[in-house]
Structure formats: C-alpha cells, structure tokens
Design the sequence.
C-alpha cells in the first residue's frame, strides 16, 4: 500500500502539490488500513489527507541541505534497475 510514497526532498524540479498529496493519501490509507473509506469516514479521511499534505509541504519547505539536487529521471532509472534485479533473482 505504501510503495507509492517516494522521497520528495532535494529533487529538481521540486515536488509538486500533486506529489505531496499523493504521498499523504498513501500514508492515510496505510494508517487507516483502508484504501477507500466508507461514506461515514470519508470526511475524516479527507481532512487527514489535507492536514498531512500541509504538514508535508511545510516540512519540505523548511528542510535545508548542502547536497546538490537529485535528478528525477536518474533516480527513477535507478529504482527501475533495482526492481529488475530484485525480481529477476526471485
């Protein structure tokens, strides 16, 4: 369920609002144990996603690093390569 949460800090270009929200949705899904809330829980689920997305955006805005920004395409290629090696060995 949480495989879609990716590192968002120190990338060029910076994380978008959509990426931050997607990570927040995945987090709330994992914590709640539900990929889709019932109608009775939809409001609290959506509120949690909004709050976590806001906290995540504030975190990313406040983090400081001396490391050069990572390239999204290079990191994606590395993830694909690791996945291929891992699943080929199985």
Sequence:
């Amino acid at each position: 369920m949480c495989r879609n949460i990716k590192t968002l800090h120190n990338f060029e270009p910076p994380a978008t609002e959509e990426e931050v929200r997607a990570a927040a949705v995945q987090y709330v899904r994992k914590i709640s144990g539900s990929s889709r809330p019932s109608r009775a829980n939809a409001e609290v689920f959506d509120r949690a996603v909004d709050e976590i997305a806001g906290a995540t955006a504030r975190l990313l805005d406040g983090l400081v690093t001396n490391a050069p920004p990572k390239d999204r395409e290079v990191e994606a290629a590395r993830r694909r390569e690791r996945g291929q090696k891992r699943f080929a060995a199985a």
